Amino acid sequence: MKRERDGLHSAKILLYSVDFAEIEEYQANSQWDKSAEVLSDAAIKLEKVGADFVVICTNTMHKVAQTIQERISIPIVHIAEATAEELKVHGISKVGLLVTEYTMTQDFYKKKLIDAGIDVVIPNQKGIETVNGVIYNELCRELFPLNHGKNI
């Protein structure tokens, strides 16, 4: 918004936050349909109160973006498509993808980048496990070992 307008303007945002513990349990048990249901309910509520579009603020849950999109009439801004567009703007054609194991090993995110002409590199299996562990056991729990246990 600041690019289009001067001054102190900012975007009007509606936010619906879900309980990640519930989502993570569904992920761990391969119950993606239940995750889709939780996120679809949130998207439907956002649409009802006037949202123009939905942004899913996590890479992994884009696995169910199509299911959610089928249940609402406003668009979902797909994070991988937006990422690909921004990479192209900056002339970047090859990226390292360091995200959850689901997102590194499945195609729902990578394929969007590849289809946009971006070369995607992921770690080997040990690297995938390390990155996934850091995400779920440190970042999601707000544990930052490099900060000597002090939350920032």
- Cα distance, first to last residue? 28 Å
Beta-strand percent range: 5-15%
* Sheet with the most strands, sense and barrel status: 2 strands, parallel
The SSE string, one letter per element, is HHEHEHEHHEH
DSSP strand tally: 4
Share of helix, binned = 40-55%
- The best one-word shape is globular
Q: Spans of 5+ residues with little confidence (pLDDT < 50)?
A: none
Output the number of helix runs.
Answer: 7
**Strand order in the sheet with the most strands:** 1-2
Q: From the helix content, strand content and strand pairing, which structural class follows?
A: mainly alpha
Question: Radius of gyration, rounded?
Answer: 17 Å
Report the mean per-residue pLDDT as an integer: 91
Kindly describe this structure.
- It contains seven helices and four strands.
- It is mostly helical and 152 residues long.
- The radius of gyration is 17 Å and the shape is globular.
